[in-house]
Amino acid sequence: MLKLRKVAITGGLSCGKSSVCRILKELGAYVVSADEIVHQLLSSDTNLGQKVIELLGTGILVNQAIDRSRVAQMVFQNDRLLDALEKIIHPAVYDEIEKQYQEQQDSKNRPSLFIAEIPLLFESDGEKGYDAVIAVIANSNRCFERFKQATGYDQEEFNNRLARQLPLLNKAVLADYVLMNNGTLSDLQQLTRELYQELIESD
Question: DSSP string covering the chain, please?
Fold first, then answer.
């Protein structure tokens, strides 16, 4: 049996990674999101959740549940806490992605591709486990407008979060494929479809 192709999607803040993943899912790929896994794992009653509460304190709880916005406010202003949090979260996320990959690899109805959306792929040295890496990039002004629209946060918060990531050019150089998302959604759909065909045809 041929190995299911495992592809990572990364890129800059608000560059359109999730949009690319939605398009790929519609085309027949199985898509898993690191952010969604974190959301599932960051429950106050999981082992990982308890470790995060031990690290950051009960101030991150709202109605006994971990509030991700409180976590973000705390760690994005403190590099030491952010590093400690990432050391807890990244291995758990990669374990869950690998578990889902094996399930799809062994499935009778295997998808055309296995896609993992991992914003901090290169920053967490995760690229080695993938057959190909796609970097989704866009110009900074466009990314900030998308970020502001999605979160309501200002330029300072955008810059703070951006400072924790590799520059876009570095991600583009390290990736196997680059999708430039400065145009319309229709443009992005066309580019993604073309790349999807290339990925399923070249093995």
Answer: -PPPPEEEEEESTTSSHHHHHHHHHHTT-EEEEHHHHHHHH--TTSHHHHHHHHHH-GGGEETTEE-HHHHHHHHTT-HHHHHHHHHHHHHHHHHHHHHHHHHHHT-TT--S-EEEE-TTTTTTT-GGG-SEEEEEE--HHHHHHHHHHHH---HHHHHHHHTTS--HHHHHHHSSEEEE--S-HHHHHHHHHHHHHHHHH--
Closest by CA to 168, choosing from 143, 137, 123, is 137
Instruction: Write the CB contacts of 137 (distance below 8 Å, at least 6 apart in sequence).
Output: 11, 12, 15, 168, 171, 172, 178, 179, 180, 181
- Asked if residue 1 has pLDDT above 60, the reply is no
Residue range 15-70, pLDDT digits in tens: 999 999 999 999 999 999 999 999 888 877 788 899 999 999 999 999 888 988 89
* pTM (2 d.p.): 0.88
